[in-house]
Amino acid sequence: SRIQDVLEAQKVRQRRFGMDAVECAVGKDLAREFHRLDENPFQMRGGAMLRLSDHQKAALNAADIEADIKEQFKKETLLRDEHEEMRRYVEARIAAECPAAMAAKGGGGANGVGPSDSKRPKIAGPEDDILFKAAELVKQYGSKRNEELLSNQMLVGIPEVDLGIETRMRNIEATEQKKVELLKKGIIPQPTNNWQPVVVVEEIEEG
Question: Could you name the Gene Ontology cellular component terms for this entry (predicted)?
Answer without folding.
Answer: spliceosomal complex
